[in-house]
Amino acid sequence: MADATAKLDLDGKTSEYKVLSGTTGPDVIDIRKLYGTTGAFTYDPGFTSTASCWSKLTYIDGDQGILLHRGYPIDQLAEQSSFMEVAYLLLNGELPGKAELETFTNTITRHTMLHEQLSTFYRGFRRDAHPMAIMCGVVGALSAFYHDSTDINDPQQRVIASHRLIAKMPTIAAMAYKYSVGQPFVYPDNTLSYTANFLKMTFSVPAEEYVPDPVIVDAMDKIFILHADHEQNASTSTVRLAGSSGANPFACIAAGIACLWGPAHGGANEAALNMLREIGTPDRIPEYIARAKNKDDPFRLMGFGHRVYKNFDPRAKVLSKAASDVLDRLGISDPVLDTARELEQIALKDQYFIDKKLYPNVDFYSGVILSAIGFPTTMFTVLFALARTVGWVAQWNEMISDPEQKIGRPRQLYTGPTQRDYVPVAQR
Ligand code: CMC
């Protein structure tokens, strides 16, 4: 929309604001001068109508169910590319050529080892610690180990920190799992792909080497691609906000992990499978649908609904098919998948879900696949964090490289007491 402006009438005074257009998607009203001009702020809790930044990484059209990374549709990337390719694409803006992909993969592979002293750090956690609790702590601790890549003003250090984070996350995640089940840590195997190496570090034990099944590696890689980035979601916005103060990248990603853990966000995959198991059999579905619709019951159908997708989540479509493929391949008949499919059908025909535009999201089917591969539910959000690290790092780099970047500092609508005088305790 060339040269468009938006007019605001406040107390009889009119002010004008530029309307900015992206390459696609809704225009935005540039209100940066609003406070200076009118003395008023905007009020938008949950940022439902606010663009917090510009970005060239990911585009979502929630009404059409479209998700693009650097312009490429997610279903094409999930079907035809690899997680390493998508990581390169998100970080660099273009798909890699053959030589570029080889160099990038080699660089990531050479960074998979963790400083040996970090294993001591793990031992400080209770043996039954949730792996996400371990992830928050260990990733935050990376800044104490890799001082030579914490200067955010040095582009080369930013690249090294990005590679380290992407490369070390599978090792950290696998170690969190090993620690929580009381098994010895398994070192990375650089002869394997990113995803196969992660599966080996997770499932190998000294007594029995795990040989990754190509079908499982492929499904896992697909899950990683589908979780790699998702625009300005809560954890990504957390990473950007933390990074806007100049905090080092390891601390910023630890902040993102903490935010992701919540059940409304990345924690939903764990909650969704727990819910499906609790429902147990399709005949109990109506009871849970009724609970989800009951305003007095805090229960929500986990893995349903999305702030942006109001048609369908394209990631859920890919995963719905992948769930059947993986279970067929493994020869598993999991009643949870039957419950999930039945629940989806019932919910999609229910007026409440139709009116509120609630559809299965990425977390609805991912748990069925991860469980079939052998992951306990407590690892689900860890896997999300592992994959989303690529998006967090790419978004953080995009923000830091912007010369106009400012510290994120929202304002508020104050509703507390107005000024009053202190009363000494003896007189209260
Ligand atoms: N089950 C039942 N009712 C729901 C659900 C649900 N899963 N989701 C939303 N609603 C209702 C909600 O009660 C509200 O009703 P009303 O207008 O009568 O108050 C309406 O739909 C709008 O919900 P909202 O909470 O205002 O919407 P939101 O955009 O703030 O929340 C959400 C989005 C994803 C947090 C929410 O849909 C939800 O809690 N879903 C379950 C958790 C989940 O699956 N999260 C994963 C999201 S995808 C992966 C990720 O981003 O991490």
Task: Give a quick set of tags describing it.
6 strands, binds carboxymethyl coenzyme *A, 18 helices, about 425 residues, 3-stranded antiparallel beta sheet, Citrate Synthase, domain 1, mainly alpha, Rubrerythrin, domain 2
Written description of the protein model:
This protein has 428 residues and is mainly alpha-helical. Among the domains are: 5-61, Single Sheet (Rubrerythrin, domain 2), CATH 2.20.28.60; 71-262, Citrate Synthase, domain 1. 50% of the residues lie in helices and 6% in strands. It contains 18 helices and six strands. It has helices at residues 34-38, 74-80, 83-92, 98-109, 118-122, 131-141, 155-181, 194-203, 214-226, 234-244, 249-260, 268-279, 285-293, 314-330, 335-349, 351-355, 362-373, 380-400, and strands at residues 5-10, 13-20, 28-29, 58-61, 66-69, 72-73. Strand 5 and strand 6 form a beta hairpin. Helix 6 (131-141) runs antiparallel to helix 7 (155-181) and helix 9 packs across helix 18 (380-400). The chain is globular, with a radius of gyration of 23 Å. The termini are far apart. The mean pLDDT is 94. It binds carboxymethyl coenzyme *A (CMC). Carboxymethyl coenzyme *A binds next to helix 17. Carboxymethyl coenzyme *A binds at residues 46, 233, 264-266, 268, 292, 300-307, 356, 358, 361-363. One of its GO terms (biological process) is tricarboxylic acid cycle. InterPro entries: Citrate_synth-like_lrg_a-sub (IPR016142), Citrate_synth-like_sm_a-sub (IPR016143), Citrate_synthase (IPR002020), Citrate_synthase_AS (IPR019810), Citrate_synthase_bac-typ (IPR024176), Citrate_synthase_sf (IPR036969), Citrate_synthase_typ-I (IPR010953). The chain crosses the membrane at residues 364-387.
